[in-house]
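note to self — DONT lose this again. spent like an hour looking for the file last time. sequence + predicted structure for the chain T wanted, 448 res
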Amino acid sequence: MKKLLIALVVSLLFAEGIFAQSTASVPKVLTLSKAVEVALDQNVTVKQAQNNLERDQSGVTAAYGRFLPTLSASSSWSYQSGEGFLQSGDRYSSTLKSASTGVNAGLTLFDGFSNTSNLSQSTSTAVSTEYNLSRTRQTVVHTARRLYYDVLRTRRLLEVADATVKYDNQQLEKIKETARLGSASLVNVYQQQAQGGQDEVNLVQAQSNYQNAIANLVAYLGLDVAETFTIEDSSIPEVINDIDPSGAKQRMQDFRAMANQAVSARFDYLSTKELFNAADAGVTIARSNYYPRISSSASYGLNGTDKVGNEFQDLKNNKSFNWSLSFSLPIFSGFQTSQAEQSALVLKKNAELGLYDKQRTIQVEVRSALLQLEFAEGSYNASIKSLQFQEQNLKVNQEKYNVGSGTLLDLLLAQNSYNSALTSKINAVFQYLTAKSNLELALGTIQQ
């Protein structure tokens, strides 16, 4: 009976292990939209930007708090005992107990516009951080797209390399058979074997590129690189049909309008603009030390003193209320205020230069993105024409070789040219999709 139970437990554990392995080996499907969604949720850069936003929003709350009165409560209890001698020489002792409690409030009435400028600065900083978060999300979307396209590109190239090796093996068997029958020489066999060996090397490289592309995508999405994922999205075309031959020329003519549109739409420019506003408010904060300070305070307290231990009962017999209004004017601060003002002015000037530089950077990025898209369109159109020609050339050389009027070397050259043209076409498709996404990123219109 004991052996039966042990065997049953071992069987259950073994079955559980098999089930766990089979469950873990089930691949997870990642579409492009799902990959973008995961990236926005898991990417470290996005999380850091969100944390920064929470920090700066708390700064806005603290800035509002500067307009509110401060409030504090206090209480104390003391015990005092002593002894001495009277004039008569008799010794005496005394004990005194006291207790007090009170509430204090203070309110700043005027601080040289420091509190209002501090609120403005904190608000601008928080808004800038929020814009930065939005821009970070847009950048993450573009990067996730680019890495996803790279997976699909390398997989298509892997399929081409695998099909080429299979074709080489079929050709080698045919050539060996014709050589055995005396219709071909061993030179043809060696040539085909050499070509097949090179194509197998290309296949191994294509497999490595594909696995690296998947690893890069999964790592960027913040997922476990040890898990298995299936990258599949039927909405991504293998052939592009919406390229307008005159579109690139028209876009370049509209460059100025597109650049201005990008400046007004880009979150990073809006973020930089808010940083300038925050620096401008910092100047007012620094200058606030030139102005007087006006504040008020009020306090209410209870005090009790007793020699026999009734100090708490005596609290209600001694009540006090104090109210005060204070005025102070800084006359000389050892040039500290002047130095703070100059530092704030330098920060404002640098922020203004940063705003101007950001505008120029956006213009450069838009123009670069337009040129990349124009090049991608041209490359795709050229690759389609080249593939059509090389496909016909391969058919002709295959037919000529089959009837004995062509050489194996001509056929191998035609096959290599066809594979090169097919590779160029695949690269051109995903280069176009990436360039299109890059233009959306440059214009600030990419969807988050």
